[in-house]
Amino acid sequence: MNRVPTTDSLPGGLTQSAPLIEESIFESEDTEDWGDFVDSDKEPDVEFACEDINLYPKGFCYPIFISDIIVERYRIIHKLDLNTANIMYTLRPLNNIISEKYKQIGRPRKMKLWTEQWKDGELVIPMKPKEELIGDSIVLSDFGLAHKAGTSTQKMQSPATYCAPERVHNINPSYGSDIWSYMCIFFELYTGTYLFPGWSHASVVSSIVHALGPLPESWKGTYHVGGSGEDKWYDQNWQMDPESDLKERITQLRPDVGARELELVLSILRRGLLYQHENRITAAELLDHDSFKGLMCMYAQ
């Protein structure tokens, strides 16, 4: 969700709400146009497209700029919360004149957001840029859970579908946990669907076991999210579901992929989806691995 300043500044210290209709914008260093506030009939459209508004008064979300927290204050060493919601493609350069930008991406539509926090904000409908405006690089965002590696922390701080299985078994997050999350994102970008679907941590763990086999027996009794877990998750005689096998799923989801490319993708996934986090491939190793470089070469042509 995008966030913008809460007032529109005009010369002389005056403030004025953004206009409700399209109008000419006089460009100058003193003029800021942050889009249009919607009327009450359109507010449900904004709320539907944005994060749950009820999370703000409770303190789970904060209507602030990330620069208020990060710039020149902290060096990010470990990003704990890694999922598709905070990985974004960059945009190609746009005209510096705001009105020209809006011709390409549309005017922001927004509504006021009042909270009990130190600063109010605005809900802004995410823009949908044209494909030709999307750049080749990606950026990370949402560093609210970033911390120094090795710091003890609350275990459950990631969406279930991207959460490494050790994190629901009372094991502190690690760089290996990030690699697991990355593999979930990698699969989703490659196939267009979740690697391990589910509406809760328990259902996601079931999906993991169906695809990869039983969890380590030593983990039994340590599951701590909404119950004690299911005994069958740790049954070393578990019979895997053929339809949940990674190779079978990719074959069904990407019938256009040749045998060579399929093996490269499987090689990458299998090195990052090991149950013991210390055995997973590292980010540096992945970048230098023949499978990853081979796949990147295929898509760089």
Summarize, please.
Residues 1-292 form the Protein kinase domain. This protein is of the alpha+beta class. The chain is 27% helix and 8% strand.
Topology readout:
Blueprint: E1 36-37, H1 43-49, E2 87-91, H2 98-105, E3 109-113, E4 121-124, E5 134-140, H3 175-191, H4 201-212, H5 246-253, H6 259-272, H7 283-287, H8 290-300
Parallel strand pairs: 1-3
Antiparallel strand pairs: 2-5, 3-4
Helix pairs in contact: 6-8
GO molecular function: ATP binding; protein serine/threonine kinase activity
Pfam families: Pkinase
Domain Protein kinase: 1-292
Key attributes of the depicted protein:
single chain; 301 residues; alpha+beta; Transferase(Phosphotransferase), domain 1; three-stranded mixed sheet; two-stranded antiparallel ribbon; 27% helix
Describe the structure.
GO terms for molecular function: ATP binding; protein serine/threonine kinase activity. Keywords: ATP-binding, Kinase, Nucleotide-binding, Serine/threonine-protein kinase, Transferase. Pfam families: Pkinase. This is Protein kinase domain-containing protein. The chain has 301 residues and is an alpha+beta fold. It is built from 8 helices and 5 strands; from the N terminus they run βαβαβββαααααα. The protein has 2 domains: 1-75 and 99-134, no CATH class; 152-301, Transferase(Phosphotransferase), domain 1. The strands form 2 sheets. It has a 3-stranded mixed β-sheet, with helices on one face. β3 (109-113) and β4 (121-124) form a beta hairpin. α6 (259-272) crosses α8 (290-300). The chain is globular and about 65 Å long. The two termini are 33 Å apart.
